Amino acid sequence: MVGEEGAFVLGWDEVLTDEELSTTLKVLCMSEEEFKEYKEQDGWEDDSGDEENSTLSNEALSRLKTPCKKLLYDSVLLTLESYRSDLKADEDLLNNKEAYKELSHREQQALHVRYGQKRILHQLLELVG
């Protein structure tokens, strides 16, 4: 369901791997009985009429059912914990011209990417929190 990388791709305005995330949330938030029924009814077939499989824009994420929001929220927290520094530390480094100049070009690029990733994750926390 998640793909080869085992990750979902988030953008500023929507989930870019929305079908995978939608299906994953749907399955993980099912009871055991619902899951068995889903499997027995060939639930893995295309069910594009289902509102949960629609594009996951930021607005749609904020309207998810509570169990799905909780699962996403907890997953985002775990992802943020995997970084060595927090959003504030990266922001401070970006704003500190002297310290920023001390970084190699590659480290500067990595800092910008890491900071952007964390901002998107924090935005997701606000949407589902």
UniProtKB/TrEMBL annotation:
Question: Which InterPro entries has this protein been placed in?
Answer: Rubisco_LSMT_subst-bd (IPR015353), Rubisco_LSMT_subst-bd_sf (IPR036464)
Which residue stretches does the UniProt record annotate as biased composition, category Acidic residues?
43-53
One GO-annotated biological process of the protein: methylation
Q: Which residues form the Rubisco LSMT substrate-binding domain?
A: 4-121
Cited SUPFAM superfamilies = RuBisCo LSMT C-terminal, substrate-binding domain (SSF81822)
Q: Where in the cell is it found?
A: Nucleus
Query: Which GO CC annotations does the UniProt entry carry?
Result: nucleus
* Chief subcellular location: nucleus
**GO molecular function annotations of the record:** methyltransferase activity
The protein's superkingdom reads Eukaryota
Identify one Pfam family in the record: Rubis-subs-bind
Alphabetized, the UniProt keywords read: Methyltransferase, Nucleus, S-adenosyl-L-methionine, Transferase
Where do the segments described as Disordered lie?
Answer: 39-59
Q: What is this protein called?
A: N-lysine methyltransferase SETD6
Which source organism does the UniProt entry give? Answer: Aegotheles bennettii
Q: Which gene name belongs to this protein? A: Setd6
